[in-house]
Design goal:
The complex is a heterodimer of chains A (161) and B (249). Chain A is 23% helix and 23% strand. Chain A is built from four helices and seven strands. Chain A has a four-stranded mixed beta sheet with strand order 4-7-6-5. Chain A has a three-stranded mixed beta sheet with strand order 1-2-3. The relative contact order of chain A is 0.15. Classes of the chains: A alpha/beta (161), B mainly alpha (249). At the A-B interface, loops of A face helix 2, helix 6 and helix 9 of B.
Chain lengths: 161, 249
């Protein structure tokens, strides 16, 4: 008999296809696990509307659970409440930093217009003397920064609230 | 509900057509960072379009999904604003078009979050977070170009002169929309216009550009009367489905 806790544990083995150092649990995209007899229903939420990883995540969940013997898996996409970077676990934040990606700062988004870029620490030398190169980066969820001290160019996981 | 279907279709078509326009910059951006930025924003918009058109298909309940709505409608059935189908022009034109649109989308999504229609509210809540980044980006470029060199100032001013005539259409409210306003599903367009105008004025003051005095305005997209540009966009966008009906990959 499969339990919910087991399913949550198995889902920790599914990694994000774009940032493989994070599991989908670290990322906070799994919202709900429900069991109805032999059927398993999982609700996930997209990070960004156009995130191309969602389809892969869905397929990976189905194949992981099938590997564990759960054959009837249904994955639903839910939009509300909308995903926020606050849902990235503490563990996930540490993993990001180790991987060379600056985790989202906790800055509240005060204004959209005339706002200063966030103060982001360099994942290599920890200096906060960094500058934003571009608000958009290698994936929808990242911005490009550079450290003024050690000159390391790095990705910053944008705060989404 | 017919009125809600029409409304969601309008939002979906705006996102789809502007997303497609921005995707045309892929590999042609003035610098690598901007190439990446424009394609990122295109991705958000096409993602929003997928969600909106999927919902429109459900409301219509005639078995059309997002793909059917995107790939199998003719130009007269498209309901997007004339603004979003305008050609990319130079980088200044693209940024001005984006700014005028983002500054409208932000207050719209802010209010749609409270829509009495739960699905529309959820889509707005999600899209709003992305739109904040889009507006940040486009407003900063309008300021940087306007308050930049003589050449960049002249070009962004020309972009505004060309595009201003399409902004009236953002705030035209038809009868079916009024019906939705009365039901608390959609905000009154006058609220959106006020918020838009105040942000536009602030940014233009900083950018030292001026709104053209020529008051002639152009509209029609919301009723399916498009400029000649939409046909070319659809020819490219729909080519595969038209050439190989029902193809999948």
């Amino acid at each position: 008999m499969v339990t919910k806790d087991q399913v949550w544990q198995w889902l920790e083995e599914v990694s994000d296809p774009e940032i493989p150092v994070l599991t989908i649990i670290d990322l906070g995209v799994v919202r709900e696990v429900a069991l109805h007899g032999q059927d398993c229903e999982i609700k996930i939420t997209p990070t960004y509307s156009g995130c191309p990883a969602m389809k892969t995540i869905e397929d990976d969940i189905v194949s992981k659970l099938s590997e564990k013997g759960v054959k009837q898996v249904k994955v639903d996409l839910v939009l509300s409440p909308a995903w926020t970077t606050d849902w990235i676990s503490e563990n996930g934040r540490n993993k990001l930093l180790e991987y060379g990606i600056a985790p989202p700062t906790d800055e509240v988004d005060k204004s959209v217009l005339f706002a200063e870029p966030p103060k982001v620490g360099c994942p290599k030398c920890a200096s906060h003397n960094t500058r934003m190169i571009s608000l958009f980066g290698s994936t929808a969820c990242k911005a490009q920064f550079q450290c003024n001290e050690c000159l390391e160019p790095f990705d910053y996981f944008k705060c989404l609230k | 509900m017919r009125a809600l279907f029409d409304y969601v279709l309008k939002l979906g078509d705006d996102s789809l057509i502007l997303g497609h326009r921005l995707s045309e910059w892929c590999g042609h951006g003035p610098i690598l960072e901007e190439d990446i930025a424009m394609t990122n924003i295109a991705l958000d918009l096409v993602g929003q379009a997928t969600t909106l058109l999927t919902y429109a298909g459900e409301l219509e309940a005639k078995g059309r999904d997002a793909d059917a709505l995107a790939f199998l409608r003719f130009d007269r059935e498209y309901r997007n604003l004339l603004l979003v189908e305008q050609p990319n022009g130079d980088f200044g034109v693209t940024m001005m078009r984006q700014f005028l649109f983002d500054a409208y989308r932000l207050p719209l999504f802010e209010r749609l979050q409270n829509s009495k229609d739960a699905t529309l509210a959820a889509i707005a809540e999600k899209s709003l977070k992305e739109t904040k980044y889009h507006l940040k980006h486009s407003s900063e470029w309008v300021i940087r170009l306007g308050d930049g060199t003589e050449e960049s100032h002249q070009r962004i001013q020309e972009a505004l002169n060309t595009l201003w005539r399409y902004t009236d259409e953002l705030f035209q409210e038809d009868d079916s929309e009024k019906e939705l306003v009365a039901l608390g599903i959609v905000p009154a367009i006058s609220e959106i216009r006020d918020a838009w105008k105040s942000n536009v004025d602030r940014v233009f003051a900083e950018a030292t550009v001026t709104i053209p005095s020529n008051n002639w305005k152009h509209s029609g997209g919301r009723k399916g009367m498009h400029s000649e540009h939409l046909g070319y966009i659809l020819a490219e966008l729909q080519y595969m489905q038209r050439a190989y009906p029902n193809m999948q990959w």
